[in-house]
Amino acid sequence: MPILLDTHILLWFLLDSPRLSAHARRILDEAGARVFFSPVSILEIAIKHALKPEVMPCDPDGILEDALGTGLRELPFTSVHAREVGGLPWVHRDPFDRMLLAQARAEGVLLLTCDAPLLRYGDGVIEG
Questions:
Q1: Helix, strand, or coil here: 31?
Q2: What is the pLDDT of residues 33-45, one digit of tens each?
Q3: Burial class of residue 36, CB neighbours in 10 A (0-12, 13-18, 19+)
Q4: Neighbour tally for 54: CB within 10 Å
Q5: Which CATH architecture has domain 3-127?
Q6: H/E element holding 110?
Q7: Using CB atoms within 10 A of its CB, is residue 70 exposed (0-12), middle (13-18) or buried (19+)?
Q8: What pTM does this model have?
Q9: Sign of the dihedral defined by the CA atoms of residues 54, 56, 59, 62, in that order
Q10: DSSP letters of 57-97?
Q11: What does the alpha-carbon distance between residue 102 and residue 99 come to, in Å, rounded to a whole number?
């Protein structure tokens, strides 16, 4: 099954962080070339980097370059995805996470996350 990475998982994967669980690594290995990232994550990184570079030291340009360089595939965010956001229950209020979940559901891919509130959505969300 294709996988969409949430922003934390994307960063941890690209930075080879020990925070990326062995379970998440196995999922990514099994998914092979069917692993996607979203421009929503690049947007989230860009905003957080601009507001608080000490908290988000990652440069969005570097993250984008690394994501593409490692063979991750970009899954464009479309108006269909934007419309799906409004139909999600208000289990989680983070707009970036809600966009990622809506995008994953609309595309029929699994969202890999470590975010407990996102995991409460159940279907289509897997713990990393």
A1: helix
A2: 899 999 999 999 9
A3: buried
A4: 6
A5: 3-Layer(aba) Sandwich (3.40)
A6: strand 110-113
A7: exposed
A8: 0.94
A9: positive
A10: ---HHHHHHHHHHTT-EE----HHHHHHHTTS-TT---HHH
A11: 5
